[in-house]
Automatic annotation (TrEMBL):
One MF term in the entry's GO annotations: ferrous iron transmembrane transporter activity
Gene3D superfamilies hit by this protein: Cation efflux protein transmembrane domain, Cation efflux protein, cytoplasmic domain
GO terms (BP aspect): intracellular zinc ion homeostasis
Similarity section: Belongs to the cation diffusion facilitator (CDF) transporter (TC 2.A.4) family.
Listed GO CC annotations: plasma membrane
Membrane topology: Multi-pass membrane protein
Protein name as it appears in the record: Cation transporter
Annotated ranges, domain Cation efflux protein transmembrane: 12-205
Keyword Lipid metabolism listed: no
Swiss-Prot/TrEMBL keywords: Membrane, Transmembrane, Transmembrane helix, Transport
Keyword flag Transmembrane: yes
Amino acid sequence: MTPTQTKRRLGLLSLVVSAGLVAIKFYAYHLTRSQVVLTDALESIINVFTSGFALYSLYLAGLPKDENHPYGHGKIEYLSVGFEGALIFIAGAFILYNATLGLLHPHPVARPDWGVLLLASTAVVNLGVGLLLVRSGKRLKSVALVGDGQHLYIDALTSIVSSVALVLVAATGVVRFDAGAALLLGAFILANGGQMLRRSVSGLMDEADTAIVAEVIAELQARRRAPWIDVHNLRVQRYGANLHIDCHMQMPYYFTLEEVHTQLHDIEELIRARFAVEVEMFVHADPCTFAACSLCLMPDCPVRQHPFQHEVQWTLSNAVKNERHHLK
């Protein structure tokens, strides 16, 4: 099974599970008439919509590049996370409003035992499926699957809190535990929706993924060769699971075009081998100048003007700058 097929099957699993669990939660609300159970059920409705959109985004992200989308369709996964975050944010605001009314005007909770039983069972299922989606999403480099799995984690947490609230109501007879728990969950859901929106905007705006950039730089540094005098202006963009990388590499100016091509090809191949996703890499070759002699490790260089002093270690702080390195 290809990674794209695996993503789609996991997305379909999330959709089916979400639809089944939301039915169970609304049945629990029908039995209990509990504010916190209603909160849990409303939050779960979002799961159905977001799982459906995530499944569609995984289908689009798996389409090949075309003339209109030369970098592929992977950015749709960030849109999926943003759509999910927006719905969660709206649901959180609505839940806060209803929970406040319930706290001011509490009403009795019926059959809390059934509510606890049903909600606890949904929490177990959500935790299991959420764990599967997050692990698979990280392995397959799918932000849509990871986001969907994290949402199921949150759904499981809301079910656990709802169950605890029902237990407290049954044990103490204090009905305000019900609305109070709903109020806390609403605030938590609202904050989580905001975080997902921020993550979506960051991806759509090509915010630098410092972990990936640092990994690329570390790989170049670890496998550094003498002709690779200096690297700078290194940038990484993520398109769904795939990566687009470009940088400038300073090389001896007397190299033939064939020698430069061989070195650039080797750089691209070692980076592609490092990541288990599709990597599109463009390396721009800069000719060296005599100012770089003190940094250059080329043995028996026929044009060296200055003795070698020491090698500049490529790091996250210097390799991303659009300027050649020099000794201070």
